[in-house]
Design brief:
The complex is a heterodimer. Chain A is 0% helix and 55% strand. By secondary structure, chain A is mostly beta strands. The chains are: A mainly beta, B mainly beta. Chain A binds chain B through residues 32, 34, 36, 41-46, 49, 89, 95, 97-100, 102-103, 105-108, 110, and chain B through 4, 6, 31-32, 34, 41-44, 46, 49, 91, 93, 95, 97, 99-107, 109.
Chain lengths: 115, 113
């Protein structure tokens, strides 16, 4: 019940295309869902995050879609660029009034954007 | 803002020696820091949660006597890998909690010969 399932494991997209990564969870106590971007040899960087009281959040080319009833959320990268090539991790946690609980990570998606 | 640093970025040591990795929050105070381990092409595995001024909470299967964690101040946590062996070679990443978010350090690549 603590798992976050992420798919696909790898994704190849042409430059300018849309990259879509999906995640699903079971624990309805999760109330904060961040996405992290990680380049080889670097630590993960927070990309965008959403709370379950909204169905969509957009920041630039990155959009999270959240389906509370289905317990699913997805990351959409519009106009994908070669510089977006990285591994993306979805995560979930229970965020208690500013003191964040442990992050439960998905297994990651390696995105390659071809020029 | 919310920058986390780690030192060293890379370390190579001989089997049987101990290695200390530092994690610092540079522009904020973090009451909670986390230590992760990441194997190649895999996700992050939480090792322990470190709270300032108290003992770390270790995840199941993580040897607390082997991976010593100290969180002596609101901006510094250290991970010491004691009596390192080749199987301890990995990428170690820390994160610090601030305003409900976790910010990650750049990671430390440990190679044990």
């Amino acid at each position: 019940q603590q798992q976050v399932k992420q798919s696909p494991q790898s994704l190849i997209v042409q430059k300018g295309g849309i990259s879509i990564i999906n995640c699903a969870y079971e624990n309805t106590a999760f109330d904060y869902f961040p996405w992290y971007q990680q380049f080889p040899g670097k630590g993960p960087a927070l990309l965008i995050a959403i709370r379950p009281d909204v169905s969509e959040k957009k920041e630039g080319r990155f959009t999270i879609s959240f389906n509370k009833s289905a317990k699913q959320f997805s990351l959409h990268i519009m106009d994908s660029q070669p510089g977006d090539s990285a591994t993306y991790f979805c995560a979930a946690t229970m965020n208690y009034g500013g003191s964040q609980g442990n992050l439960i990570f998905g297994k990651g998606t390696k995105l390659s954007v071809k020029p | 803002g919310a920058v986390v640093s780690q030192h060293p970025s890379r370390v190579i040591c001989k089997s049987g020696t101990s290695v200390k990795i530092e994690c610092r929050s540079l522009d904020f105070q973090a009451t909670t820091m986390f230590w992760y381990r990441q194997f190649p092409k895999q996700s992050l595995m939480l090792m322990a949660t470190s709270n300032e001024g108290s003992k770390a909470t270790y995840e199941q299967g993580v040897e607390k006597d082997k991976f010593l964690i100290n969180h002596a101040s609101l901006t510094l946590s250290t991970l010491t890998v004691t009596s390192a062996h080749p199987e301890d070679s990995s990428f170690y990443i820390c994160s610090a909690s601030w305003r409900g978010l976790q910010f990650f350090g750049p990671g430390t690549r440990l190679t044990v010969l």
